[in-house]
Design goal:
42% of the residues lie in helices and 12% in strands. With 217 residues, it is α/β, with parallel strands linked by helices. The chain has a domain of 151 residues: Ribonuclease H-like superfamily/Ribonuclease H (Nucleotidyltransferase, domain 5), CATH 3.30.420.10. The chain is elongated, with a radius of gyration of 18 Å. Keywords: Cytoplasm, Endonuclease, Hydrolase, Manganese, Metal-binding, Nuclease. InterPro entries: RNase_HII, RNase_HII/HIII, RNase_HII/HIII_dom, RNaseH-like_sf, RNaseH_sf. It is an enzyme of class 3 (hydrolase). Its cofactor is Mg(2+); Mn(2+).
Length: 217
């Protein structure tokens, strides 16, 4: 197995450990940019032993590697939780608000609860210390672990939704704005899985012509 060159470490977690906060949760999401399906957020507390793990930012890995490493996260984690924000919540709160809400729901389910957080630039309003650096999913073991759980769980969910909504190709593009998804929207229309507040979907709903081209939005 080829391991990517960019590897996480414990630097952000150590900042919290030095201050006496040993249960540090990593938080990350998957699906913020998709046009359909939920945004999925995972929160993970790993054992505070500073050992090396194979966990990496899920975007650096193949699907098989993500599944393998996500299973390892579930095996070694002190605790973890996964939450979804569905299109209705995204349309109501906007994608950032819905992502934050799902993250807070996931954190509330952790037992024991976290004493500090490291997130991938999610500046959550919490009453515990938080580090929210950019690209934390590539730099922090805890956030990389959360990235793996969020990505694999969302991918599994999109496979299920593909069977429930045939013709849209959710199993392949996972709800993102791929050409096949654009074509399916033109041919089949918008479903309740689509984020109607997103500009391409909103424009399609506002344009009754069957000749509407999403490429022009």
């Amino acid at each position: 197995m080829t391991i990517p060159q960019v590897t996480p470490d414990w630097a952000y977690e150590r900042e919290h450990w030095r201050r006496g906060y040993f249960r540090v949760a990593g938080v990350d999401e998957a699906g913020r940019g998709a046009w359909a399906g939920p945004v999925t957020v995972a929160a993970v507390i790993l054992p505070g032993t500073a050992q090396d793990y194979p966990f990496r930012d899920s975007k650096q890995l193949t699907a098989a590697q993500r599944e393998e490493f996500a299973a390892e996260v579930r095996r070694v984690a002190v605790t973890y939780a996964i939450e979804h924000a569905w299109p209705a919540e995204i349309d109501e709160k906007n994608i950032l608000g819905a992502t934050h809400a799902a993250a807070l729901r996931a954190l509330a389910r952790l037992e024991p609860p976290p004493q500090a957080l490291v997130t991938d630039y999610l500046k959550l309003r919490v009453d515990i210390p938080i580090s929210a650096p950019p690209r934390a999913d590539a730099l922090s073991y805890s956030v990389a672990a959360a990235s793996l759980l969020a990505k694999t769980e969302r991918d599994r969910l999109m496979l299920q939704l593909d069977a429930q909504h045939p013709g849209y190709g959710f199993a392949g593009h996972k709800g993102y704005g791929a050409p096949a998804h654009r074509a399916a929207l033109r041919d089949l229309g918008v479903t309740d899985l689509h984020r109607r507040s997103y500009a391409p979907i909103r424009a399609l709903l506002d344009t009754p012509s069957p000749l509407f081209d999403l490429e022009t939005t």
